[in-house]
Amino acid sequence: MIAISPNPQTSIKFNSQPLSPFGLLLEATEPQSDIRKLSIPQLRQLTWEHSLIVLRGFSSLQEEVLPDYCTNWGTLLTWDFGTVLNLIVHDNPQNYLFTTGNVPFHWDGAFAKAVPSFLFFQCLQAPSAGSGGESLFCHTTRVLQNATPEERQAWQKINITYKTQKLAHYGGKITAPLVSQHPITGNPILRFAEPLNEDSVHLNPLFLEISGLASGKPDQFLNDLIARLYLPQHCFAHQWQEGDILIADNHALLHGRNPFLANSPRHLQRVHIL
Ligand SMILES: [Fe+2]
User: Fold this and answer.
1) Residue 255 C-alpha to ligand 1 middle, in angstroms?
2) Pairwise CA distance, residues 165 & 121, whole Å
């Protein structure tokens, strides 16, 4: 059991449990604990160390309070809709995010003025058991570690141009090197956004143009890379429970979503912390 708190009077006790293949679950022993009583520097450190933390047993933060709390972590990225994105199914969605379809792996902020350091999620309504809708996270440093030295060398030379129409809150055209470096930990990371696949809901697709490939066809390279992202040793699937708070390192990880059943509820809120 560990305690994380700015002062001993407000100490909150947790059971901590490693998640597989990475991540840390911190479960408060008292239900409806207050996340605001926890030390943010310690939580930040744990997020960098484990790439992702799940806090369970805490009260959800009201939408009016959520941005204020997240501001204590860092400056928030503001979008057209503000700072809190409600991830729910829309009646007439313009983008696959707001459907029950899968969300391919990507990193957030690729098209924004700055890339968020942390993704802060809270779950207001979890999908019913067996309905899908897990959030997926890929540990890109591990993908690199498990590649051969020759593959790593070849990947270093690759740049990818991504294009998508701005139908939701993001869009445009950017070029990013496939291999980059984590600004805090210094670890090598992959920056990659996966195109929609044949099972996806084809709304607002992303188009890729690959340069710097030493050999082989772009399609072969993409298929091989994408298969590695989903390997069980690289990919954590989070099955949401109502009230879960999940904080993810947006530099170390890519994230996506499994599709879910049309009649299943799913409501997440997400804030980008720079
Ligand atoms: Fe995202």
Assistant:
1) 6
2) 25
